[in-house]
TrEMBL record:
The keyword Transport applies. Belongs to the binding-protein-dependent transport system permease family. FecCD subfamily. InterPro entries: ABC_BtuC-like (IPR037294), ABC_transptr_permease_BtuC (IPR000522). This is Iron ABC transporter permease.
């Protein structure tokens, strides 16, 4: 008898996961083509495919020239946020961990706003360095605060510490922006989170950061499986717990910080995507992380397309769409699957 939909075939788990991977890759490809097609001016699907292949003939070049880097940024940012969320949940053993809930996005945002306001940062590479530093400092602070008291860094304490830290840092962002009218409009629109300003230059500058972060996360996949058993048992199995947790956290912070530098803070992608992927492939991080990358890329691309469709001829920023879509989906996943721990 065939396995139920959404469940990995336990008799042939690798075959079932590979089948699901082909499915999600196919859906992502369709979403990428749709993203190039849809906008204030429609582009035929053959022309969209040709544009993605590098051809510049036979279609509305102005529309495609803007949509293609925007689509590639949505794919890269969605993949980064999906993997970052999955790793954060694995490192903290907290099913509610997410760059937004733990305040990492807000820390990166504050660092970028301060850099722009007081140090004149303009390039994507410089803002990426600053954002990664802000994200890393915030992650360390939240983990330290959440570790205080009896029981250490429990999921509830980490979530509360992240929420409090995020609120405090958001107030500081507002304080900096209100005092600088010259950057206020741009900073406010950037804080919503979006991929409309995507360009090949920005992708080229943040691409190395995303690549390094992704490699660190993927190399930590086997160690994250051990950490899921508990620190003591992982150490008994020969896992270097502190090193594994540190490398995985560094990869997640790098992905989150670099993405925030070019898109602004985008919520819920890192929260919803890992839970959805666990329903498809289980909890093995060697499969979970690649799936989170593909599904995260698809989710953010779909959110960007939806934002262009529902508000045509204007558009909704992708950060608004992910908030509307991600919150109810996450609530449904938690209630339906009764996810209480990893």
């Amino acid at each position: 008898m065939a396995p139920a939909p959404g469940v990995v075939d336990r008799r042939h788990p690798a075959r079932g996961r590979a089948r699901w991977l082909l499915v999600v890759l196919g859906v992502l490809a369709l979403l990428v083509v749709t993203s190039v097609m849809v906008g204030s001016r429609q582009v035929g699907w053959l022309d969209a495919v040709a544009a993605l292949g590098g051809s510049l003939e036979g279609f509305d070049q102005a529309a495609v020239a803007k949509r293609t880097p925007r689509t590639l940024l949505a794919v890269a940012a969605g993949a980064a946020l999906g993997v970052s969320g999955a790793v954060m949940q694995g490192v903290t053993r907290n099913p509610l961990a997410d760059p937004g809930i733990l305040g990492v996005n807000t820390g990166a945002s504050l660092a970028v706003v301060v850099g722009i306001a007081f140090f004149g940062l303009t390039s994507a590479a410089s803002t990426a360095w600053v954002a990664i530093g802000g994200a890393g400092a915030t992650a360390v602070a939240v983990y330290a605060i959440g570790s205080l008291g009896r029981g250490g860094a429990t999921p509830l304490k980490l979530a509360l510490a992240g929420a409090a830290t995020s609120a405090a840092l958001a107030s500081l962002v507002s304080a900096v922006v209100l005092g600088r009218n010259d950057i206020a409009d741009g900073a406010r629109s950037w804080q919503i989170g979006g991929v409309g300003g995507g360009s090949y230059a920005a992708l080229a500058q943040v691409g190395p950061f995303l690549a390094v972060g992704l490699v660190l996360c993927l190399l930590s996949a086997r160690g994250l499986n051990s950490l899921a058993l508990g620190d003591d048992l992982a150490a008994g199995l020969g896992e270097r717990v502190a090193l594994t947790r540190g490398l995985a956290a560094l990869g997640a912070v790098t992905l989150c910080g670099a993405t925030t530098a070019v898109t602004g803070p985008i919520a819920f992608v890192g929260l919803v995507v890992p839970h959805a992927c666990r329903l498809l492939v289980g909890v093995d991080h060697r499969w979970l992380l690649p799936f989170s990358a593909v599904v995260g890329a698809g989710l953010l691309t779909a959110a960007d397309v939806l934002g262009r469709v529902v508000a045509r001829p204007a558009e909704l920023a992708v950060g608004i769409v992910t908030a509307f879509v991600g919150a109810p989906v996450f609530i449904w996943v938690v209630r339906r699957q009764k996810v209480s721990a990893l």
